[in-house]
Amino acid sequence: MKDFRAKLDYVLKHNIAINKMFNVTASTFIKMMGLFIPVDKKAILFSAHGRKYNDSPKEIYEYLLAHPEYKDYKFYWAIEDDDKTEIPGEHTIVKPDTVKYFRTALKCKYWVTSVNIERSLKFKRHKTVYLNTWHGIPIKTVGNEAKGRKDYDFSYIDFFCISGEYEIDVYKRSFNLSESQLLKCGMPRNDVLYNTTEDEILAIKERLGLPLNKKILLYAPTWRDSKDGGKSYQIKPPINLTLWEQELGEDYVLLFRTHPYTNELLGVHFNAFVRDYTNYPNINDLMKIADVLISDYSATIFDYAILERPIICFAYDLEEYSRERGFAMDIRAEIPGSITATEQDVIARIRKGDFETECAAIRAFKQKYIEYGGNATEACVKAMFSK
């Protein structure tokens, strides 16, 4: 079933005619279902990419659990792998893209997501309050700015979170949003990054069994589009980890975390030096303990900038990625530090980088792009229930 859906997602994303026909037909059918389903005023549907219990919807959900005034609400989570997910509190899990999922969405008065509740369709009811926290400040083109896409219309969303003024024009163009919909609060998932302590860092390292006498490198690349019609979403970074271990192993440990949409990692073998944290549920833990972030075109760069630590942009396929996907900004000019194209450049930056200078550049980057944040969870809840 997953393989079929992956292929269908790919076709819908890359074929405008089929996408439009599918959306009109499916949306009409679901709207008709809604004629027979009453709205539950105390029901909330949460979805974080429709796959796992994480991201900003997780933070909002746990906030509601901790406040007794919401104890009478019913909580629903859209989760792909329910047998692998541990979620606190009383809740109901529904699998995305099933009849039960769409019936639940029609029933719930409140929608909370970091991507899209309607799965690219259009069936939101007038009574539904829709909060979209989104999942990252855009480096890459998104929505209608991406090649071949002109079908995004978020004009009916009630609240859409942003972290800075840079995003306003991007989201207006990309999602057909108006400024009145934008909630200037940052992303709830990032609230905890504003108050990271040394004791907390030490506790996380001890819990994960990481050496306390070595620094931590976090490598978190973004996803690459499928090359085989949606069968797989692979990534194969041009790195020789034997060389990395020879050059850095004495002083560092490398944590590897691929994007949630990447389903196959090639050319990487894990050991005591390079460790796999792709399925670790809380990326904030990894960012808190990382001394340096290595990424490319991932929005994780903005999240990590909150900590004001060095970032290395390892853009080994910059020209190809620019042609195939495109960028919302001039990354050569905006990303702090020079763009690194080879693993030798990355290793040299780690070994010889000026920590003070790099941290100062990250602070300036943070001030430019992350103007709001630190109390986003509470701001989202207040906005949602004041509607």
Note the topology:
Elements: H1 2-14, H2 16-34, E1 40-47, H3 55-66, E2 74-78, E3 92-94, H4 99-107, E4 108-113, E5 129-132, E6 159-162, H5 166-175, E7 182-184, H6 198-208, E8 215-219, E9 234-235, H7 241-248, E10 252-256, E11 264-265, E12 274-276, H8 283-289, E13 292-295, H9 300-305, E14 311-313, H10 318-324, H11 331-334, H12 343-352, H13 355-369, H14 376-386
Parallel strand pairs: 1-2, 1-4, 2-3, 4-5, 5-6, 6-7, 8-10, 8-13, 9-11, 10-12, 13-14
Helix pairs in contact: 1-2, 2-4, 3-14, 6-8
Explain the overall architecture.
The protein is of the alpha/beta class. It has 14 helices and 14 strands. The model has no long low-confidence stretch (mean pLDDT 92).
Cross-sheet strand order for the largest sheet = 3-2-1-4-5-6-7
Mind summarizing the main beta sheet? 7 strands, parallel
**Cα-to-Cα separation, first versus last residue:** 38 Å
Work out the radius of gyration.
21 Å
Q: What helical percentage do the residues reach?
A: 25-40%
Shape: globular
Determine the oligomeric state from the structure: single chain
The total of helices stands at: 14
Explain briefly what this protein structure is.
The protein is of the alpha/beta class. It has helices at 2-14, 16-34, 55-66, 99-107, 166-175, 198-208, 241-248, 283-289, 300-305, 318-324, 331-334, 343-352, 355-369, 376-386; strands at 40-47, 74-78, 92-94, 108-113, 129-132, 159-162, 182-184, 215-219, 234-235, 252-256, 264-265, 274-276, 292-295, 311-313. It is 37% helix and 15% strand.
